[in-house]
């Protein structure tokens, strides 16, 4: 369902131009989504994210973790993380995501937002380590949150709600032309876990 109550299918491109975003809706049953949510909350090595933004050292309220096939280093906002080896749950979700998206991934960035006071500011996932026109698959668990895209030139925005157990794919030139964000909201009082499966290219390990 988009924000106007229209139903969307995984074939629909949510972006009007300059990129491709497909929303698969719920790919996990309510039970499975809940079980993965609880398992990930307890088994993932969550850490407050540190970032350098406009020259300031920031420690985010949201927590993050980075997993992968090898101990890839991932640098964003001037901080570097080394990937941890896949856990059982992350490996299962990676395989499911690969099957549904037809894309192979080698790493996953996880974010834990404790409530609506925590979000993610406008950005593109256009780090050099991801290469150009990368495919990113995003699984959401827990609280439903609004997710928005904004075109870098035209400033046109597109928003949708990410349900628990849902899958969203960003591909084509999406990261080149569009920003995305998870807006903060007073309405959400419960936690959400997000997994973004990614492909790190051009790195020797
Ligand atoms: O939490 C989300 O849905 C998005 C997270 C995100 O954009 C990112 O990790 O790059
Ligand atoms: Fe992102």
TrEMBL record:
Domain Fe2OG dioxygenase, first and last residues per copy: 104-201
InterPro entries linked: AlkB-like, AlkB-like_sf, ALKBH3, Oxoglu/Fe-dep_dioxygenase_dom
Molecular function (Gene Ontology), one example: metal ion binding
Keywords, ordered alphabetically: Dioxygenase, DNA damage, DNA repair, Iron, Magnesium, Metal-binding, Oxidoreductase
Cofactor(s) demanded: Fe(2+)
Protein's UniProt keywords contain Metal-binding: yes
Source organism, top-level taxon: Bacteria
Residue stretches spanning the membrane: none
PANTHER family: ALPHA-KETOGLUTARATE-DEPENDENT DIOXYGENASE ALKB HOMOLOG 3
The name this protein goes by in its record: Alpha-ketoglutarate-dependent dioxygenase AlkB
């Amino acid at each position: 369902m988009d924000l106007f109550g229209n139903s969307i299918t995984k074939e629909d491109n949510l972006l009007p131009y300059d990129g491709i975003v497909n929303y698969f809706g719920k790919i996990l049953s309510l039970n499975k989504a809940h079980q993965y949510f609880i398992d990930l909350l307890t088994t993932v090595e969550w850490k407050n994210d540190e970032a350098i933004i406009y020259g300031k050292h920031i420690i985010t309220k949201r927590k993050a973790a980075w997993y992968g096939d090898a101990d890839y280093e991932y640098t964003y906002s001037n901080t570097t993380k080394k990937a941890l080896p896949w856990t059982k749950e992350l490996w299962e979700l990676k395989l499911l995501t690969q099957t549904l998206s037809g894309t192979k991934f080698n790493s996953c960035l996880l974010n834990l937002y404790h409530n609506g006071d925590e979000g993610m500011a406008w950005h593109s996932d256009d780090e050099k380590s991801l290469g150009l026109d990368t495919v990113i698959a995003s699984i959401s668990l827990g609280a439903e949150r609004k997710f928005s895209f904004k075109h870098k030139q035209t400033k046109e925005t597109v928003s949708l709600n990410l349900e628990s157990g849902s899958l969203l794919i960003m591909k084509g030139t999406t990261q080149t032309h569009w920003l995305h964000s998870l807006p903060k909201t007073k309405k959400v009082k419960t936690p959400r876990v997000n997994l973004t499966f990614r492909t790190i290219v051009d790195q020797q390990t």
